[in-house]
Amino acid sequence: MDVSLESALNERDAGAEQTGLIAGRPLEDWNAAYAKVESYFHALRVRNKVLLGRLVIHVLKRAMRRAPQELHRSVAELAAEEMDQVVTDWFAQVLQESPAGADRMLSTRGRLALLLADMPGKWQDQFLRPGPWPDEFVKAMRDAYLRAGPDFQLSKMAPRPLDLGPIATLTQLSQWSYGKMVFIWIAFALVLVAIFVLTHHPFDWDWRHFPF
Amino acid sequence: MSSIIADASKPAGEPTPTLAIHPDRPTRRAIRLFIFFSSAMLLTGLVSMFFADLLWRSGWTNSSTILLVLFVILFLFISVGSMNGIYGFILRTFGDSDQITRLGEYQSKSIEAISTAIVFPIYNEEVARVFEGLRATYLSLERTGQLERFDFFILSDSRDADKWVEEERRWCELVRELDALGRIYYRRRIFNEGKKSGNVRDFLSAWGRRYRYFIVFDADSVMRGETVVDLVKLMEAHPHVGLVQTVPALANAESLFGRIQQFANRLYAPVFIAGLNYWAQGFGNYWGHNAIIRTDPFMQYCDLPSLPGRKPFGGQILSHDFVEAALLLKENWQVWFAYELEGSYEECPQDIIENARRDHRWCQGNLQHGMVLFARGLRGISRIHLLLGIFGYLASPLWLLFLITFNWTLWYRQHTGLSVITVRAFTPFLKLSGTEHAFLIFMICMGALFLPKVLALLDLGRDGPRRRAFGGLRRATLSALAETVFSALHAPLQMLWHSKFVVTILRGTGVSWGPQKRIADGIAWSEALRRHWGHTLVGFIWGTLVWRIDHPTFWWFVPVVAGMVLSVPLSVLTSRTSLGGRARSLGWFLTPEETSPPSELDTLRVRMALLERTGAAASGPRDAGITEAVLDPYVNAIHISLLREKQLNPEYVQALAGLGVGRPEVRELAERMLGKGPEAISAQEKILVLSDADVMSWLHRQAWIRSSETLAAWWQSAIRQYAR
After folding, report:
1. Same-domain status, A172 and A136
2. Would residue B512 count as lying in a domain?
3. Minimum Cα–Cα distance from A105: chain B residue
4. Are B198 and A138 in contact (CB under 8 A)?
5. ω before A132 within 30° of 0 (cis)?
6. Count of alpha carbons within 13 Å of A136, Cβ hemisphere only?
7. Does A193 lie in the same domain as A138?
């Protein structure tokens, strides 16, 4: 990985560079591009400052080569595109997939592999480095696969009809398994009512005293 | 087994071979049931006669008839509770061999070739807590050496985009930390029809065939590894059992309210459940979680039908658990309570308002059981379970009606100037005045209500280790007294709340809860005032009216109106974690899990404390999830991978297409989101964008390579966050 800015700057006529410009663009724009690329590598949990600096410079160098030709595009945009390209190309190499025509699956798979192989914890120094890589790292990257569930064994549950008819059930109370018990309890209640009625002279009730 | 599963996939109506196995000793169980409920009927009958006599003595009116009918119904349910306590106490004192853990030797059973799924159906939960609960159970199970027999499934039904992304992120973190890839799985449904029961059904449709049993956890459940293994062994030892329900101990409460509930649960539940098990035996119930289920019969018989008619009674069955147990029993599968198995935990609401919110949900589900109460073919005992569940909530409006009718009678007498001249009836034998007669009935009611609590304390007193785990008998007794005072104040509030729930549910209207305003230590005073001003007003008006009608009667009503009048401070103060902590340091409301915490709860507590200290427990601000799913290279990759895996299931593919995934409109929504920020699209549109793997991949790239000027300030700011 070429991390020297000199090589990029020297490709152009350094003498023709105006003060306050790099690759024909204001320093402030490169600052913004730097910040954006750095943010992305931060998001990938590349925490080592030396590695981080090297990776950012590597990407910016590629952007600097394009900057003089693509004046209608912002430096940050070019840097972001290069960053995307660098990362995708590297994924293709590590995972042995072709970057040409690859859809976004490769990027997704690569990022997932970085996470599951624990690049931020164990392999920061290997990230974006050209091969060969340690076998363990390569194996971890290529074997990384996120399984959210075991293989499906599809089947279909079907609700069984439930006859809710209360009247039908009530009319068949005698067939109810607890019918006898209920009958005894009702009989007991009726006996109590009968005792109460007989002992409290119901025919002496004065209905005129009812409040409503 | 395979033939049975094939049957589960047949459409309804096709003949299926039966799995049914007849339960043991039906006659003996029927006798138990008869004896138990006859005891309750006998007590109710005698006390009701005594009450009717009192009404007669003071002059019978139509109001008396209403009062008597209400009294009989209400006292019957008090009697059932009381009998549960009495029978439970007797059984615990003299031994109870008729429980599933003692029916036969099960510990030696091998679970070598048995696969069991542990499922966590979740819906917009506190994500960190769910995953830490899972971690605690996982680690505990690992220590048993039987981990490889179990797979864990987080079955998400979350509709909140941020929760969805957070769940995926935390799942991946957990899997990596525990090295549990291929052991802990995550699945989010595209639509959440059928709610929790539909969620479990979806799991069974996709993976049910792989597992002989599945254990259902709640979002806040934790179980000890040995308990999980024991459950599987129990099922292996009893092939005719379809479901074993553990009795979860409430744990981890910190507020005063939570600790009171937790204490009551731990002290009283063993006696009550022993009583419940006496009459239920193999015809128990399912409480929706912390239970193991035999997959085959469940798949074959427990797919719930949609009920005819409109809400609140029609439509999907909300409280599915009772009905699922009833359907298993209907097909001759046994359902047991394994109340001797320790190591099953859940959490409880931490304040009165949260408790009422949960009750509202349960109330709706339980009332709906009225529709299936008379369903043909259900066992009588299932109808009893359903009826008890319904009356758990219906009792409140009946109590309210009883009290109002009593006040009406009182007012009418005062208004008409009729004097209460008691006549002789039964009481000559007892030589009681009218007041003494009324007081005796009151005391009988109180006795029936509080006897189980006294028995629970006696039960505690004869068990040394358990007594010490509660901090000693003296502390437990004082705590039980304080709990009783609190319950007395809380009960009128529940009466008003439940009555409101029942009325609004029956009318088909809802109760709006909205977000709860909490401060660090509990409920804010303003929030309590907003929720309880009605209760306070009712208490004042009611108390004033009773005072004006009859001074002596007012004092009888003090417990009822005091809870209402004091509802605001009661709600605020009992929600305080500082007061909960203070009570704990004084030895009040101690539970065994507090005096010697099991390692699972310790793990959970330590991890949650750590996460809270580092700020990692909290969910991010609004749209933090979708932002993370777009910008974070890893979260985006996880999210897309999970979406792509769904393509393997034709049902999910169909559901995604039904949602609108793949249409050009989704890309337009994504474009709008990039240009104007996540707030530019609705919550439903965010879900749609998040559901489209290609769009999410595109979004990630675009958000990082586009120039800042074309991105909304939201994204620019979020990208800058990564630089720090």
Report:
1. no
2. no
3. B697
4. no
5. yes
6. 4
7. no
Backbone phi, psi, residue A108, to 5°: -60, -50
Residue B509 reports pLDDT greater than 90 = no
Whether the CB-CB separation of B594 and B600 falls below 8 Å is answered with no
Helices (H), B58-117: 62-94
Residue B153 DSSP symbol: E
Classify B283 as helix, strand or coil. strand
Q: Smallest Cβ distance to A42: which of B11, B307, B722?
A: B722
Q: Which amino acid type is present at position B458?
A: L
CB B389 within 8 A of CB B322: yes
Spatial CB neighbours of B222, under 8 Å, sequence gap ≥ 6: B133, B136, B137, B251, B345, B346, B600, B601, B604
Do residue A159 and residue B306 have CB atoms under 8 angstroms apart?
A: yes
Chain B: residue whose CA lies nearest to A198? B425
Cβ within 8 Å, pair A169-B301: no
Residues 6+ apart with CB under 8 A from A101: none
Centroid of chain to Cα B181: 31
Residue B575's SS3 state is coil
In a domain, B580, yes or no: no
pLDDT 10s digits, A142-180: 988 777 777 777 677 777 777 766 534 444 544 555 677
Q: Which domain holds residue B141?
A: 114-225
Give the span between the Cα atoms of B317 and B155, in whole angstroms. 19
Q: Which domain, by its residues, includes A15?
A: 5-143
Which of A143, A176, A196 is the endpoint of a domain? A143
User: pLDDT of B321-341, one tens digit each?
Assistant: 999 999 999 999 999 999 999
What residues contact residue B512 under an 8 Å CB cut-off, 6+ apart?
Answer: none
Q: Work out whether strand A21-22 and strand A25-26 pair parallel, antiparallel, or are unpaired.
A: antiparallel
Q: B712, B674 in Cβ contact below 8 A?
A: yes
Which ranges constitute the DSSP H helices of B281-351? 295-301, 320-330
User: Would you say residue B118 lies in a domain?
Assistant: yes
CB of B236 closer than 8 Å to CB of B106: yes
Written as one letter, the residue type at A102 is A
Asked whether residue A152 is assigned to any structural domain, the reply reads no
DSSP 8-state symbol, B284: -
Q: Hey, is the C-beta of B45 within 8 angstroms of any chain A C-beta? A: yes
Over pLDDT 90: what percentage of chain A? 25
* H runs (alpha helix) in B145-286: 161-178, 195-207, 225-237, 256-280
The span from the CA of B578 to the CA of B576, in Å, is 5
Alpha helices in B575-646 (DSSP H): 577-585, 592-595, 599-614, 624-631, 633-645
Burial class (CB in 10 A: 0-12, 13-18, 19+), B412: middle
Task: Answer yes or no: do A67 and A20 share one domain.
Answer: yes
Is residue A101 over pLDDT 60? no
- Regarding whether A131 and A96 lie in a shared domain, the answer is yes
Residue A17 binned pLDDT confidence (cut-offs 50, 70, 90): low
Out of B41, B181, B375, whose CB is closest to A147? B181
Cα(B15)–Cα(B422) distance, integer angstroms:
67
The last residue of a domain, from among B225, B240, B259: B225
Tokens representing B313 are 């009674």
Contacts of A52 by beta carbon, 8 Å cutoff, 6+ apart: A38, A41, A42, A46
Cβ contact B450:B458 at 8 Å: no
Count CB atoms within 10 A of the CB of residue A101.
6
Q: Cα–Cα distances in Å, from B324 out to B335, B510, B521, B671?
A: 10, 26, 39, 46
Chain A interface includes B645 (CB < 8 A) = yes
ipTM above 0.85, yes or no: no
Chain A residues whose beta carbon lies within 8 Å of the beta carbon of residue B374: 164-166, 169-170
Q: Do A195 and B381 touch (CB under 8 A)?
A: no
